[in-house]
Each structure stands twice: as structure tokens, then as C-alpha cells.
Design brief:
By secondary structure, the chain is α+β, with helices and mostly antiparallel strands. It is built from 16 helices and twelve strands.
Amino acid sequence: MGIIKNIKNYFKPDYQSIIEGALTNPFNSAFLWSGGISSGYDTKNKTYIEKGYNVNPMVYSIINQMSTKTASVPYEVKRIKDKQAKRKLQALHIATKGDYTPQQFARKLMLESKAFEEDFMEFPMEKPNANQSWKEFIALWKTFMKTTGNAYIYMLAPEMGQNKGQPIQVYLLPSHITEIVLKENPKMLGAENPIDYYIMIQGSSFIRFESENIIHTKYPNPNYGDNGEHLYGMSPLRAALQNIESSNLGLALNIKTLKSGGAFGLIHGKQTPLRKEQADALKERLQEMNASPEDLSKIAGVSVDVGFTRLSLTSEELKPFDYLNFDQKQIANVLQWDDKLLNSDAGAKYDNMSYAMKRAVTDNIIPDLDILAQALNTNFLPRFKGYEGTMIVFDASELPEMQVDMKQLVEWLSIAKKDGIITFNEFRVAINYAPSDNPNMDKFTVAADVLTVDEAVDPSFQIED
């Protein structure tokens, strides 16, 4: 973040009162548990990173899998040709969540051919910034969204000149240390945007970012507040904080048990109490035995009859891995991921894995990419000259687990063409082939003799031998 830090707008001392006022309204203090039994972890965005993603293997594995998958979805920038066809295409996408039947997939391709120009456009920036590719950028965007519920895209652009407002570098601000600053006396239900600017807080450093240079994507948040709590997205991990804490404690207990060898209790004389010098000598000998790597050093003798009273439960009695498995399922459910994808032995067969991955794409990957696409189409692409009337399209149908049964698709299309429902060119488009320039390919035909509909219904028409 050093590049961003050197850009501009460090806070001067006279901003201190503004900062202090802003910090009375951060997300960090907006959501505090009250009453009942709750997690020992607070609901600060830093907690989701430091106690979740950074140290919890379940959280890291799930979010890393989904961020990698999200970044693998191909995308193109297309120029809109027919707005009505585009609206129908978007309605089909929303209704199916990208899980098309062969008939719906054919309709999707036909609508795309009408909605967009044939040639796609190059993305306006080859890289978002000097240190990232777009693939890395999208993966990090997904990570911030799933950990904190927010992602802040900062667009560095000239403030004057011919290319005023056109981004030259794009960064993701660390969402766990980025805060919203409201305007003075903001109206939360008014027509005006209540957000004045954003600040990134790191230690004693405060960096200001104007709201027009930030694209803020977030998850829905039902926790409305007059201080603007609802302007932040709600972290999915908030609902799983107890499971994150539980699994962290379970892993720590496992390490502690391994270090102690599972022994925790009292050694005592069976018939008479041990004298202090006997107890000290016994303790010293046990420490020597534990420290020595030699096998025979584990054998020792005592001159008194001793007993051992265990004060701890065994791993068999505690069943820590049962709790860890339960926590894993809960965390996966909260993050809309299937635990079968985490090398889980339970039900991890090929068919189940294939279905689980397809469900993850439709319920997790595609909805998040829709959020990103809408944000880029509204606030990013229009800033570039020549990109008016264009939109970025993420096409998850190219993923292996989202492939349509081509045999079933072709069989359905063949019947439709034979009955005069679609043309030859529409058939070609539906199987992702380029349409032909031959004008006869746009005519509706019936039967194997390739008759036009007019010829087929004309009783005087006869086929020459």
C-alpha cells in the first residue's frame, strides 16, 4: 500500500477533531453483542482477518477456494446493441442463476447475439496497478467481501487535463482498516448521499479518499442505524464467530494435549502423603525424563507406593474432532460453500463433488460476480472514452462444472429447426458457432428437404426429382 500512501491527503492536525468524530461511527463499534452467551471475539473487521482468515485453517481454506474459483471465471467487455434483448438476457440469468437447461442455454446464446455486438472489446486497463493482475485483483476482492462484507475499490485518476477522471491505477483498499466518514448532519433517508469521504486508518496514519474515487461494494446489512451502520456491508463471518472461536480453541487444545502427552493430574502417595523432599525429587526426575530423548530415560524407580489421579478428560471423552467437524460445517454453511469440497471423507464421491461444485458456482460465485459486474458497469467503464454503452460480462457457463449436455441440446435444436421454430443460423448460434452470411440460413425451414415455411404450406409446391 506504499504507492497509495504516497499519493496524497495525509490528515493535518486540524483534522483531528473530524477524525475523532468519525471514529464514533465506525463499523468496528457498531455491532456489539448484548446479553446472552456470545463469542469472546468482537465483531470488528480486523477480527475476521486476524482470528479467522489468518489463523483458522477452515476459514482460510474455504475463502481461498472460492476466491480462486471466482478469479477463474472468464469475462469480456461487450458493446450493447439491443437494450431490450439485454434486459431479457439479464432476467434469464437472474432466474436461472447461471444453471441453464439445454433449452435455456440456447435461448441465452440467441439473446446474447441480439443484445451485443459480435466483436468484444479489450478491457480498458491491462493491469489494475503495477503490482497486481486482474486475476489477483478479483481474488483479493472476493477475499475482502467474504471476510468483512465490504470491498473498497480506489480509482487513481487525473484531476485535470484531457483524461480527467479516467482511472490510470486501481487499488483495493484493505477493508478491515477502511472507514466511512459521514457528512455533517446527514439524512439517512434523503436523496443526497450521506457519505462525505473514506479514510484508511493504520496506526496513527490517516489517509483520506474522496467518495467519487471509491467504488464501495458490500453485502446487504439489516442493522440500520442513524449513525450509518447500515452503510457498511455485513460480514458473513459475523454469524460464525462462535464457531471460529470454538475451532481455534479446539486446535489450541490439540497442540496442548500433544505437548503434555495427554497427562494432567496429581501424583500422590497411596498409603501416606509424600514428604516435600520426596515430591520435589519426584517432580525433578519427571522433568529430566521428559527432557531426555533417550528411551531408557523414560524408566524410573521410586521408593514409595504412589498413585496418580487424573484431573483432565481424554481426547476420546472430549471428542474434539467431532466439534471441529461441526464447526467446519457451520463455517462452510455461513460462507455458502459445501464442506465436501474441503477433502471431507463424508459423501465425497465424484457425483456428489460435481454437484457440490456446481452448487457453489450458482449460489456463491455467480451472485458475487454480479455484484462486481454491476459496480464496474456503473462506476468504472463509463469513465473511459469509447466505452459508453458497454458492459463487462462474466460467463460462468465456460467453467467445466457448468457445461450443458450438448447431446441433449443438439437433439432439442434439431427438432426445433425441423418444425420451423428456429433458423439454421439460430441453430448455429445456439451451439456457439458463428452465423453464416448466406441469407438462406436466416429463413425458417421444415423437414429434411429444407423447405421454407411458405413452400411447406403451399399445396401446389412440388419437389422436383
